Amino acid sequence: MSRLKDKFSAQAVLQALAAPALALLAAFALSSAVIMATGKDPFHAFYVMVDFGFKSDSQVWIINKAIPYYLSAAAVAIGFRMNLFNIGVDGQYRVAAFFAAVVGGALALPGVLQIPVIIITAMAVGALWAGIAGVLKTTRGVSEVITTIMLNSIAGSLIGYFLSENKLGVKDGNLFHTPTIPDSGRFFLLPTTPDPIYGTVIIAAVIGLAYWFVLGRTRFGFDLRAVGRSESAAAASGVSVRRMVVTSMLLSGAVAGLVGMPTLLNKSFSYGTDFPTGVGFTGIAIALLGRNHPIGMALAALLWGFLERTGIQLEFEGYEQEIVGVMQGVIVLCVVIAYEIVRRVVLRRQQSAVGAELSAQNTPSTESTQAEKAGTTA
User: Fold this and answer.
1) Is the pLDDT of residue 364 over 70?
2) How many Å apart are CA 264 and CA 249, to the nearest integer?
3) How many Å apart are CA 350 and CA 11, to the nearest integer?
4) DSSP secondary structure string for all residues of 138-166
5) In the prediction, which pLDDT does 4 show?
6) Looking at per-residue confidence, does 125 or 24 come out higher?
7) Average pLDDT, integer, range 262-280
8) Cα-based torsion angle of the residue sequence 92, 77, 49, 62 in order, rounded to the nearest 10 degrees
9) Helices and strands, counts by H and E, the chain
10) Residue 85 pLDDT more than 60?
11) How far apart are CA 174 and CA 187, in angstroms?
12) Mapped to the 3 state alphabet, what secondary structure does 277-318 carry?
């Protein structure tokens, strides 16, 4: 059995290393083919991306861009670990950021109170918005995919209704935004050069640690993953499936509420019609790319920011602006396919190893067979 365990551990390491390597090679080859199809030199494109992406100002830009991407991916990954597809992170973070901006703009508290109030408001609103889908799934059997998509649309309409001059909005030229959050409600910046890094990177780090600990080191995380693997088996062991579904959606929505905080507390200080959208859908791709692992999603978020940053420079070099989008899609597909291929190969090897071990245990050795024959003869 010890030899069998050693084989399984070696195969696990093989899967962890082979899948990313295979995905990167495939993504590099396919991206090169796409660039060549446009009549451009792919190697020059990669050189431009690496050269521009590793400049100091680009590195700061990439990190700041990766913060909301990582938070969005963590929110999606909580649902994925439960076998739930929370496609409504985009609506959840937008409506959460809007009401958090309204509360932050209406209060004038000391910073030690103002910032926590804004963050707690965002998390509460995000959890409430996602909880609607969880309740509908457990009470009416409505798919969370349908409800979260519909709630995305409702969130946009709700924000559009309140973000007007005679309601909660303030007109500034052609744009509408909420009242500006005072200085006491603004998150600190890390003093880096040439530009500062958003202090909300600490929030992302805390969420990553909490995600790793709660889902991987607690009974709650075990129950959540058990329900995701088999609802019937989890229910037979005493786990309340309905409670876990609602709880996971509430947690996912609470983390989704934090997605807008880097922009709100470190950059815009208000919610306006120009507030970034689509981050929730990007989080789905990053969660898939990072395999729902906190470190994997962090690397995927940085990679996504790197591609967006260097894509700007590629346009100045005469490359098509859609190239970066194609690269992002190719990378996600290659990662998903590569992990599935490696998983199947490793599974077959494990099954063969188990079969060989059981066959060896059931087959009598040569010495014991000879002893039995000698005893029979005697």
Assistant:
1) no
2) 24
3) 8
4) HHH---HHHHHHHHHHHHHHHHHHHSSTT
5) 47
6) 125
7) 95
8) 50
9) 15, 4
10) yes
11) 27
12) CCHHHHHHHHHHHCCCCHHHHHHHHHHHHHHHHHHHHHHHCC
Q: What Cα–Cα distance (Å) separates residue 370 from each residue in 89, 111, 358?
A: 69, 84, 22
More confident residue, 178 or 11: 178
From CA 109, how far away is CA 130, in angstroms rounded? 29
Residue 267: per-residue pLDDT: 95
164: Cβ contacts below 8 Å, ≥ 6 apart: 176
Measure the CA–CA gap between 100 and 115, rounded to whole angstroms. 10
pLDDT digits over 174-192, tens only?
Answer: 889 999 999 999 999 999 8
Q: What is the pTM of this model?
A: 0.89
Amino acid identity for residue 294 in this structure: P
Q: Tell me the C-alpha distance between 140 and 134, whole Å.
A: 10
Name the maximum alpha-carbon separation found in the chain. Answer: 108
Other beta carbons less than 10 A from residue 56's beta carbon: 11
State the Cα–Cα distance between residues 141 and 134, nearest whole angstrom.
10
Task: State whether residue 197 is helix, strand or coil.
Answer: strand
Adjacent-strand bridge partners of 177? 170, 272
